[in-house]
Amino acid sequence: MNSFTIETLEAAPDEIYDIELEHSLLEANAKLSRDNRALLDRHGIVAIDFMGAIGSGKTTLITRLVEKLKTGVAVFNGDATTGADADAIAKQGVPVVQIATVNGCHLDANLVGKALRKIDLGGLKLIFIENIGNLICPAEFPLGSKARVVVVSVTEGPWMVRKHPHMFLGAAIVVINKTDLAEAMEVSVEELANDVHKLKPDIRVIPTSCKTGAGLDEVTAALLAV
Amino acid sequence: MHELSIATAIVESVLEFVEKKGASKVLAIRLAVGELSCVEPEQLRFCISSITEETPMENSALEIEKIDAEVLCPHCSYSGRPKYWEDALSSGPVATLQCPQCGKAAQASQGEDCCIRTIKYVA
């Protein structure tokens, strides 16, 4: 046995305390996310959190959306190590903050709060926050965004929704990307959409192709209506 | 590995608590992990034991209790256990936010959190 048992026997009953704590471990991040949201609300800014696997097309989708919106938008780009995605988006001439998590597997509200203090919030209407390419960890950490978008692509195969149900439960919009490759991949966009609706029937599912431009106007309109 | 972030939050909270109480040794902590949280209890256990060596928490007992998921439906006022997706490929049924009564979108009302329930320590 470990020393824990010995300690218990040695301690007199009036020396052992059993304290009810009910201390939430997610609350510290949740509080910071509410602070971020309050700051954004004061400036009339809507933040949208984009989640999805590496290679699902988050950066390309955001770049296309920024091209359509042109002004009033800033992008926070979460990446474990590189600035490649931030550089790609910055070419559009909008404010970009790269958030390097180093070895962290998700963005958290503290990092987003720091990024919010790095840019001039005046004149902004939208902030797109690109989360780390990971479909498990970011689900647990709200950032202060008004809506979450999950990007899946047909090249990830037919089971992406079933494999990562938690990620979809908190999403307002699911973008099914790279539909131009659906036939070649033999992946059904309809079945992916059905899987999303089995998890939560009111999620807006929008099929897109950043290559042909299909669905991008619909995504833009949906984000402006959030 | 967000379990490590959560384990760090647990250990920091417990150590801060025992320091404030002037406790010499933590005997046990009891955690509650929601069914809808993405926290994997065994990974969490491993992460906690890895970072508590040579602290008052070393070798303390760790009990992890599961909090069941519950949903509330704004459409038909259903309140209770969620609908499960039985054949979704995963090892067990997957809790969904589809109302088991009317089929429309429900909201999670319990089971999303992860918390420290109790701490047992020696003064």
Descriptive tags:
heterodimer, A: 226 residues, alpha/beta, Rossmann fold, seven-stranded parallel beta sheet, 8 strands, 37% helix, globular, disordered N terminus, B: 123 residues, alpha+beta, hypothetical protein PF0899 fold, three-stranded mixed beta sheet, three-stranded antiparallel beta sheet, 2 helices
Outline the structure in words:
- The complex is a heterodimer of chains A (226) and B (123).
- Chain A is of the alpha/beta class and 226 residues long.
- Chain A has helices spanning 3-10, 27-42, 58-69, 84-90, 109-116, 160-163, 165-169, 182-185, 189-199, 216-224, and strands spanning 16-24, 46-52, 73-79, 96-100, 126-133, 147-153, 173-177, 204-207.
- In chain A, helix 4 (84-90) links the parallel strand 3 and strand 4.
- By secondary structure, chain B is α+β, with helices and mostly antiparallel strands.
- In chain B, the strands form three sheets. Chain B has a three-stranded mixed sheet, with helices on one face. Chain B has a three-stranded antiparallel sheet with strand order 4-3-7, with no helix packed on it. In chain B, strands 5-6 form a two-stranded antiparallel ribbon.
- In chain B, helix 2 links the parallel strand 1 (25-34) and strand 2 (61-67).
- In chain B, helix 1 crosses helix 2.
- The mean pLDDT of chain B is 91.
- The A-B interface holds A 2-4, 7-8, 11, 15-26, 28, 104-106, 108, 136-137, 139-141, 159, 162-163, 165-166, 169, 197-203 and B 1-2, 5-6, 9-10, 13, 17, 21, 23, 25, 27-28, 36-39, 59-61, 85, 88-90, 94-98, 103-105, 108, 112-123.
- Strand 1 (16-24) of chain A pairs antiparallel with strand 8 (114-122) of chain B.
